[in-house]
Design goal:
This protein has about 250 residues and is of the alpha/beta class. About 35% of the residues lie in helices and about 15% in strands. A hairpin with a 2-residue loop joins strand 4 and strand 5. Helix 4 packs across helix 5.
């Protein structure tokens, strides 16, 4: 028994500091976030809950967890942007990330107020990058093809403004539609086009009992790409109120 007691006494000064050192990590945050008061609001609450000591260091300093505007997991929104948290291998930092994403952590952020106003929210808006529409066709060839095949009915531009059918929308008006690109890509399937349009290797031949009522529009998919490239460069018409379509 005496030997066991002596071993415990000898080992105690070594194990106790080691256990204490495991309950701490460094958290980096931009000065704007620190100045907002949010960091000072959530850090002590997590520390008291888990007996963990968090050292807040300046942005860019070596740290086990980092609040930033990008690069990590979105955790809350405020000051006009979404804030993320990126954690390293430190288990206490990971525990902090888990807590921040829990109901208790989220409530802690949402309950933070300045002058009666909650400047931060964990209801982070999803930010979706919308890629601009691009078409690989030759716009110049598309202009010529549009005038030849579409200009019989539609106003393609100033060049045929007086030579179209008045009841058909101009290309500029069609460009105001939110799905204009889908309509142009599949125009041959939209009435009245199927009756007189042939797209090579796509549309079936005309029924011999129901031939085209006018000189048919005959295009290839490559030529349609050229038309799309041309139309994508046309400025939408200014119609005032948003256009309604069916």
């Amino acid at each position: 028994m005496r030997l066991v007691f002596m071993l415990v006494v000898l080992l105690w000064p070594v194990t106790a500091p080691a256990q204490e050192a495991d309950k701490r990590f460094r958290l980096a945050a931009p000065q704007a976030l620190i100045d907002s008061g949010l960091v000072g609001h959530i850090v002590p609450r997590f520390g008291l809950k888990t007996a963990t000591r968090i050292s807040v260091v300046e942005d860019g300093a070596e740290a086990d967890a980092v609040f930033a505007a990008q690069g990590g997991t979105p955790v809350f929104e405020g000051l006009g942007q979404v804030w993320t948290l990126e954690v390293g291998a430190d288990p206490d930092a990971q525990r902090f990330a888990d807590w921040l994403g829990s109901d208790i952590g989220r409530n802690t952020v949402d309950s933070f107020e300045v002058d009666g106003t909650a400047p931060f929210t964990t209801q982070v808006r999803q930010q979706v990058a919308v890629a601009p529409l691009t078409f690989d066709g030759d716009a110049k060839r598309g202009a010529d093809l549009s005038l030849t095949h579409c200009g019989r009915c539609h106003v393609v531009g100033a060049i045929n403004r007086s030579k179209s059918i008045g009841s058909t929308p101009s290309f500029a008006v069609l460009r105001t539609l939110p799905n204009w690109d889908v309509r142009f890509q599949g125009f041959y399937a939209l009435n009245p086009h199927p009756a007189f349009t042939q797209i090579a290797d796509v549309t079936p031949p005309f029924d011999i009992s129901r031939p085209s009522p006018i000189a048919p529009v005959e295009l290839t998919l490559d030529e349609l790409d050229h038309i799309l490239a041309f139309v994508s460069g046309i400025a939408p018409a200014n119609l005032g109120a948003p256009i309604q379509s069916r």
